[in-house]
Amino acid sequence: MEKLEEKCGWCLGSERYERYHDEEWGKPLRDEQRMFEFLLLETFQAGLSWITVLRKRESFRKVFHGFDVDQVATMSEEEIQAALKNPGIIRNQAKIRAAVHNAQCVQRMHQNGTTLVEFFWNYVGGEPIRNERRSLKELPASTPLAEQISKDLKKLGFKFVGPKVVYAHMQATGMVNDHLIHCPAR
Questions:
Q1: Is 32 assigned a catalytic role?
Q2: Which of these, 115, 98, 112, 74, lies nearest to 165 by C-alpha position?
Q3: Residue 14 lies in a domain
Q4: Which of 35, 81, 100, 124 fits a 20 to 30 Å CA distance from 175?
Q5: Which residues pair with 129 in a beta bridge?
Q6: Which entry of 18, 20, 24, 32 is annotated as an active-site residue?
Q7: Cα separations (Å) of 26 from 109, 128, 159?
Q8: 20 belongs to the catalytic site
Q9: Residue 169: count of CB within 10 angstroms of its CB
Q10: Which of 17, 42, 121, 167 is catalytic?
Q11: Which of 17, 25, 50, 121 does the annotation list as catalytic?
């Protein structure tokens, strides 16, 4: 008997999560500002669930100037202190400061003639890795490629970009298609 198409189980139970799964997760992303948005959000997700970040996404958008790299890179101490008091975001001082610092790292990439989009997509030759996973148990938290990208980001000065964060970013931005083989969003 053939298995019916069924969404990846991790998104079920929340309309917001399902919408994110259906419309964003695993779709190849090649927009610089959105790539920065996902990287910033993934760094805040470290140690937490992604749904927690999704619920706060619009507040993050306001605090971090619509995820504009140049504006985030120049956030003042007053803005950082205001962010620390904002219950609409994850109020982790190290992560807030890392967001500003990482935006400065992206600016340096731009000054050196590359983009965040080019940086990430070069690792996969511009084409998504299409995995053939049958169950959620098969989804890894990280891969050797994510470990390499993490090391390279850290060499560039980025913070909160461990292999698990990087792999989640790769999945979210469609560098890796980890939708299960029976998922209609595949």
A1: no
A2: 98
A3: no
A4: 100
A5: 176
A6: 20
A7: 25, 9, 24
A8: yes
A9: 25
A10: 42
A11: 50
Judge whether 149 lies within some domain: yes
Within-domain flag for 7? no
β partners of residue 130: 177
What is the C-alpha R_g of the chain? 17
* 129 token code pair: 């890795």
- Which residue shows structure tokens 């050797």? 144
pTM, to two decimals: 0.94
CATH number of the domain at 155, please.
Answer: 1.10.340.30
Taking only the tens place, the pLDDT of each residue in 83-119 is 999 999 999 999 999 999 999 999 999 999 999 999 9
Our count of domains for the chain comes to: 1
Dist. CA 146–CA 128, nearest whole Å: 14
Domain that holds residue 71: 24-177
* Chain mean pLDDT for the chain: 95
Q: Check if 79 is active-site.
A: no
Tokens 């259906």, located at residue? 22
* Amino acid code (one letter) for 143: T
Tokens of 117: 């989009």
3-state secondary structure of 130: strand
